[in-house]
Amino acid sequence: MPRFSLTTPIYYVNAKPHLGHAYTTIVADAVARWHRMLGEDVHFLTGTDEHGLKIQQAADAAGVSPQQFADDIAPLFQQAWERLGITNDDFIRTTENRHKVGVQKLLQACHDAGDIELDVYRGLYCVPCEAYYTEEELVAESGASNLCPIHKKPVDAVEEENYFFRLSRFEDRLLKWYADHPTAITPQHRMNEVVGFIKQGLNDFSVSRKTLKWGVPLPFDESHVAYVWFDALSNYLTAIGYGTDDAKFKSWWPVDFHLIGKDIIRFHCVYWPAMLMSAGIEPPKGWAVGGWLLVGGEKMSKTSGNVVNPLDLIDDFGVDGFRYYVLAETPYGNDGDFTYEGLVARYNSDLANNLGNLLARVATVVGKKCDGIGPRPSESSPLAASAKEAVAAAQSAWSAVQPSKALDATWQLIRATNSHLENNEPWKAEPGPTVDAVMGDALEALRIVALLTFAAVPTTAQAIWERIGMSGDVSEQRLPDAAAWGGYPGGVQVTKGESLFPRKQA
Ligand code: MSP
């Protein structure tokens, strides 16, 4: 069976899950579901990033141990993902033993290769970023200067003896690797950004902290703990058995896609492949870089205080309503502006008016004109071509991690089916072969829509499937074959049921 693996970033446990975290996780889930429907053996990994100064400080502020702090927050992520229907195959916490073993193995491998060395470091550190900045990178705002460009907070001047990863030695190797793998990072402009950054020259980075205790001890010097980013990036290996289950590790690495936000590209596309090369491990096959969800033009984050809790939105819009908005509204890779009005508008237009209305009207007409029994589709329906196009376009969009494009293609079919009904007005016609043909075609289109929407809105897809009289689970169908025109058997009971997406007031 072909294999497909993908990861989300692991989220810091200093904040409760918010829309920004949900965003990448939902995109990853939809992509994972799509690949499972292609019949692939999928490994979808997410988890939490629990070490480092940021968590230590948050725990101190809360008056609990960092372990206790992490133990309180990590389950909130697990529960949120469960409620959002996230089908991750594993959830790694960086405080787990399997992770520690793997991080130490990776550190040792880079050390053995001669790429980790002791040195003294002076630098400007932003704790919320867990990263050093150069003076040129700092910004000024509202009368204050020397602020972190992302959090707009003062940075700390730090001087300490650290172990360094000799990133500067990897410039040529990274450039060659990217030249040999020109499509590894999407969107393309992110690849250009990474290559441009490497060409400017790379600085070694510190991989250990002596003053901090909350982390994984270096195997070759236990008076230091690993830098949180070295620790965190390793999760992609440790979760699939690096250091604990070699056969499993070999069967899943290299990963097909790391899904990451644009703020963590440098770590993922420069540090990470260099660390892997040093340890003699192949770099990832791909990175899909997403934008930010903005609220009033600002990145939503704990530090900015403009956080939207995804679970509140589910109460109003349903899991699928929320998932759909997140997937359809913003092309993955771009920034999106989250507004409540935008959510209502998209829900009403695409879900209530287009999809919900199509299903309701098909079920009503079949109930009235076909005794509730769905007729067979015709072989030469004008909808067959629309369906074929939708399947092909959805397939290529999902493989390129472009859910909004895939959904757009799917909604073309929904719109074409609504138009087909409006052009033929079966509700006005007498029962008979003409009505049967139109309704059979609409039901077949809905069957294909259920298959194409399952990745994004799984509960809705299954509901459509059952209401048009199909048996079994949508998830067990295999694409693209199952979506070939003509699969609707006819002669099955069609049920009207409650409205899937009641309209919302803005
Ligand atoms: N722990 C690190 C990642 C380590 S991965 C080896 C981290 N955690 S984070 O919780 O701060 O952010 C994780 C991801 O969520 C980042 O990719 C970030 O871009 C994404 N998002 C956080 N807020 C976001 C938005 N408001 N919008 C979209 N994505 C956002 O960084």
Short description:
The chain is an alpha/beta fold. Helix content is 47%, strand content 17%.
Task: Kindly describe this structure.
The chain has a domain at 340-493: Isoleucyl-tRNA Synthetase, Domain 1. Helix 12 (340-369) runs parallel beside helix 14. The model has no long low-confidence stretch (mean pLDDT 95). The chain is of the alpha/beta class and 506 residues long. The strands form six sheets. Strands 1, 2, 3, 4, 10, 15 and 16 form a seven-stranded parallel beta sheet that branches. Strands 6-5-9-11 form a four-stranded antiparallel beta sheet. It has a three-stranded antiparallel beta sheet with strand order 12-14-13. It has 16 helices and 21 strands. 47% of the residues lie in helices and 17% in strands. The site of 5'-O-[(L-methionyl)-sulphamoyl]adenosine has 21 residues, from strand 2, helix 1, helix 7 and strand 15.
Low-confidence parts: none
- Biggest pleated-sheet summary: 7 strands, parallel
CATH classification, class level of the domain at 340-493: Mainly Alpha
Multimeric state of these chains? single chain
CATH superfamily of the domain at 340-493: Isoleucyl-tRNA Synthetase, Domain 1
The proportion of strand residues reads: 15-25%
* Radius of gyration based on Cα positions: 26 Å
Distance between the ends: 47 Å
Number of strands: 21
* Share of helical residues: 40-55%
What is the number of helices? 16
> CATH topology of the domain at 340-493, which one?
Isoleucyl-tRNA Synthetase, Domain 1
Gross morphology is: elongated
Ligands (ions, cofactors included): 5'-O-[(L-methionyl)-sulphamoyl]adenosine
Q: What CATH architecture of the domain at 340-493 would you give?
A: Orthogonal Bundle
- Average predicted confidence as pLDDT: 95
Secondary-structure-derived class: alpha/beta
